Amino acid sequence: MSDEDKALELFNLVARQTLEKAIDWTPSNEIEDVFEFTTESGFTLKAYSFTSVETGDETGPPSLTVYGMDNKVIFDITSELKGVSEQALRAFYDNVRRSALDIDGKLQAVIDDLAISKAKAS
Predict the structure, then answer these.
(1) Are 69 and 43 in contact (CB under 8 A)?
(2) Which of 108, 64, 102 is nearest to 84 (CA)?
(3) Pick the residue with more confidence: 112 or 85?
(4) pLDDT at 53
(5) Cβ(45)–Cβ(34) under 8 Å?
(6) N or C: which end of the chain has fewer CB within 10 A?
(7) CB atoms within 10 A of CB 93
(8) What 8-state DSSP symbol labels residue 78?
(9) Separation between Cα atoms, residue 9 and residue 94, nearest integer Å
(10) pLDDT averaged over the chain?
(11) pLDDT tens for each residue of 14-29
């Protein structure tokens, strides 16, 4: 199996497990809008809202980078990888962000607060 085939398999697995909330994504302390997860073996996955930084500007669709235990890049998963579209990366990044920031839980809390406020006003 080629590196590209393994990277595609990894992307599909991580995307599925993110949807299933089986991965505990957390916001990065280093860069805003970057989320990370470290495996039991010490590898780190980072989901970026961009592909690269050119002249200080973040460009391109979201990407997923795999880092080794030495914090060196092992592989970048971008829309250039056969089988991974920009649309798939955008959906993946949105799911990672929603999970890491508990957006669904926070939205539900706001809905609950408004329902309580309305009930008190009645």
Answers:
(1) yes
(2) 64
(3) 85
(4) 64
(5) no
(6) C
(7) 22
(8) -
(9) 20
(10) 91
(11) 999 999 999 999 999 9
Q: What percent of the chain has pLDDT over 90?
A: 70
In one letter, which amino acid is 20? E
DSSP 50: S
Q: How many CB atoms lie within 10 A of CB 67?
A: 17
Nearest to 93 by CA among 118, 61, 121: 61
Nearest to 29 by CA among 44, 43, 10: 44
**DSSP letter string over the chain?**
--HHHHHHHHHHHHHHHHHTT-S--EE-SSSTTEEEEE-TTS-EEEEESSSEEETTEEESS-EEEEE-TTS-EEEEE-TTSTT--HHHHHHHHHHHHHHHTTHHHHHHHHHHHHHHHHHHH-
CA 120 – CA 109 distance, rounded (Å): 16
